Amino acid sequence: MTCAHSLLAENETAFAIDASRIVFGHGALDELGEHAKTFDCRRVALFTDARVGKLEHVARARKSLYHANIDCVVYDAVQVEPTDASFLDAARFAKEGRFDGYVSVGGGSSIDTCKAAALYATYPADFLDYVNAPVGAAKPVPGALPPHVACPTTCGTGSETTGIAVCDVLALKAKTGIASPRLRPSLALVDPTCTYTLPGEVVAASGFDVLCHALESYTARPFAARERKLPRPMSQGANPWSDIGSREALRIAGESLVAAVEGSSAARDALAWAATLAGVAFGNAGVHIPHAMAYAVAGLVRDFRMNGYPRDEPMVPHGVSVVVNAPAAFRFTASARPERHLQAASLLSGARVASDEAGAGAALAGALETLMKAARIPIGLRAVGYGPSDVAALTAGTIVQKRLLANAPRDVGEAELRALFSEAM
Ligand SMILES: [Fe+2]
Question: What's the gap in Å between 289 CA and the centre of ligand 1?
């Protein structure tokens, strides 16, 4: 294999491919019971949120489990944008129920909550023990977890194929997460028909999450630039495997995102496939600056609410909190990997972008902003309620995301983050 990355003696020379088991296509959700049976499940906990719990997806999942003679107890109190408290509440339910398997039906919040519930019910610990450093102690997950079949009903987070669970730590007003290959669901059942009833705003927000997973994986620091150390981190950096998924996800998302927002079923099918490809890519490569900044943007929200989402509490949906930073972030990172930024701009816009390498960052930011306008998503941090006086707090909330920042193609410290947040206003 030819590889463009320069290899230094002390640096990484190999990459790992941790592929998830995936069943993709119309009707996949109705196969849930048969798949759960192959894991020898007899009694499963099904995690969902109150809204999705009332939709036909959960009824379909339960029916399929029923026909496979598997008991199912539903937990429908998943919090959209979960917290340490909501993770622990779900874990309490999981522990008391003595389940031998787990099912999640919903968006990333339901899937992440299910991962955390299975973890803390199986290997009880203080909450911060497994949480990423420096917020938590980043202790390794001690052993395998019971089977988890993840059934996404949005087309975005990719959580069904990753070993990451994200939450807010309320006392610290910080968004962080738990990352371990052991959290990766045993099987992802991706049924794009689940996305047909989603409001356009939810498709837009999750669609830009897909785009950013692909863009960040593709422009991440190359795996060979990392110091060789076993076990390899899940965020290995860009590698030939993640590049395949990223490029195709960008091409499809560029072509179908706006039509998917407008309600086309075919475009939603396509976007669900792009989300799956991007999820597999970023589960191996890792994301970087836009997601690191997003943790602070979501965690410090004051009063922003978005149509299509629960309105009882202020919330910046994950995909929006990521993409509002993305144009500024890619203008900054372009000088490290200009050819990749140009290629990504071409894939997104569906036409070869004529620009020299010096214009690569502007070209990618421009392609992204064109799509954001067409999908009617908030552009810039002011649009989600922030102003220049928030730059210090946003920077402080981002600098702790060391795992993500280290995956950026350029070194980024406090001064750079302050500049990025100012630009993203
Ligand atoms: Fe994301």
Answer: 11
